[in-house]
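Exercise 7. Given the components listed, write out the predicted structure of the assembled complex. Treat all entries as one system.
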Amino acid sequence: MATTTIKDVAREARVSVASVSRALNGGRGVTAETSQRIREAAARLRYMPHAAARMLITRRTNTIGALLPDLYGEFFSELIRGIDLAARARGLHLLVSSSHDDADAAAAALRAMQGRVDGLLLMSPHADAAFLHQNLPHDLPTVLMNTRLAGDGYCALSVDNDGGARLMVEHLLAGGHQRIVFIQGPPGNRDAGERELGYREALASHAPDSPVIMLRGDFGEESGYRAGHQVLAMRPRPDAVFAANDMMAIGCMAALREAGICMPEEIAVSGFDDVPMARYVTPPLTTIEVHIAELGSQAMELLGEQIDHPDQAVTGVHRRVAAKLVVRGSTSAAAR
Amino acid sequence: MATTTIKDVAREARVSVASVSRALNGGRGVTAETSQRIREAAARLRYMPHAAARMLITRRTNTIGALLPDLYGEFFSELIRGIDLAARARGLHLLVSSSHDDADAAAAALRAMQGRVDGLLLMSPHADAAFLHQNLPHDLPTVLMNTRLAGDGYCALSVDNDGGARLMVEHLLAGGHQRIVFIQGPPGNRDAGERELGYREALASHAPDSPVIMLRGDFGEESGYRAGHQVLAMRPRPDAVFAANDMMAIGCMAALREAGICMPEEIAVSGFDDVPMARYVTPPLTTIEVHIAELGSQAMELLGEQIDHPDQAVTGVHRRVAAKLVVRGSTSAAAR
DNA sequence: ACTCGACGTGAAAACGTTTACGTTGCCGCC
DNA sequence: GGCGGCAACGTAAACGTTTTCACGTCGAGT
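Answer.
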């Protein structure tokens, strides 16, 4: 039925299949007029080359795979958007596989992608070195995103959590704040850990006299609320709060507001992520914006390079995508 | 290099390639012990069948394509999650292509998917009947999502905007509200139009004496804020606002709060979508929750059926995914 | 004028599978 | 004991491309 093959086009244009292939791909080794005739025939028959056959002989799928964890919210959406954009620009398709709960599921998903993709974008909490070595064909170009594995032969790319956190602390210090509380993320969470590290570093280098004050949290709004109460109970009272993410900052603000604390005058509050909600709370939340789409795009770029030039592959590099300070009313009365 | 083919396995297991294929796929027509030996050999060599070769001969890609508009926010993320989950359950891969701005780009993306997918999930503002007829191979199973095309030979699935809006109006009426303002979405937007329709229907059937009051909006928070001011100027003053989406409802609430209006006592406010922010504004926003992930899953299910049984394909059906009323403090003082 | 190279074109091999079709050997039945 | 049937297995064709190679043919250089 409808499946018109290259042979049909060849017959229609009164040439051999080889010429059709040449005319439609490179265009070299075939007269302009012949090429023209072939193109017309192809258009007339609505010919579309059979992708699988081409993959088989070419060894190129023109597809990249993205293996992602079970993500909620707009982080995922932004990431895919960035990846898709960069992939489209390179004429590559995108095969995604999200929500694999355990390491086995991830491994299965990874195996299933075998041979369907030219390269892999991998972001998974299960992706430790052993896992990779076990499940990754070592000749498949791969870029790791937000992984704890630096170097180790793989390309990696992640958000500059340290840098962002340092920016925030510097901003708070510049605002004259002395006692800055940090609300931690869930234990073991890499992003949270890096943000904490940035906080410590910035304090150590810019204000060695300022105390390091830690409160527990788990990225949930509730835990921020509880931390807020703890802040209220402290003596001397802190004059700034830096939460490891926006949701906790928002929870904390709720607690402070209930206690009648004036923000930012009495206590400044800041978060990390720049979730959409951040600009709508009162006062609007100062936070760190991370360009997630760019994380995706850059990872895709890196992967593209690796695919196009497998020989001079830049392995072991670990790039970071910049984080940006967004000042709003919760830390600066000046900021409208 | 490493690419081990079925021949290698055959040699290793001392059988023919046909037996390997049989053992690894159906398992029929081959002794248990031979099968065992073959499996062992395959495992030893880390054999993975070449996907492209299999597609070529089988005419099945085990992949479905999702063509999506340029979406922001968690709607997209939820949708993909739902699709991916259902696809995984059926052992299908997911090829996504988002962010195609104009009809040409969409058409190109669609053509490029040709032959790589067994079926298509399509959500696109450009997908009118002519577009589909022009660019869709008519033998490719397809499910349309959130489209204005009902019937017309295609399967379609969309959010029950009417139903949701009716639920909300009924809720407001039940709360004793008489003068309910509706804040419209952008002109031409399908979801917005259906929600408005639901509002009109519910009023007409349950409270024919209540006035139909419309205010313009564009789904943006700003437009909700402006609408809020208009509400304040109305005499007699409305006692409830139903915004076509949450962001406008939030904007409206800001305007009312500034004017010292007590919510929900003086004016109740409600939205549509149940964005994450909805539960964090004060008072928490009553809204309609639409299970986006389920939209994706159900679409995938429908498509799966169509693929598995192309003969008895259910074409022309138009299913709707339910919307759910979520009552919070902005319409009910009782709701904590 | 003859050779040589370049160029356009066609025939055929190759890619790795699945599957239709033979072939073999075994078992049971008359 | 021969024969039919069946199950296990092998051979080879087919899927639709790309690409290598060979074969002209034509133009230019000696």
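Discussion: The longest strand of chain B covers residues 63-67. Chain B has three domains: 6-49, 63-159+292-320, 161-291.
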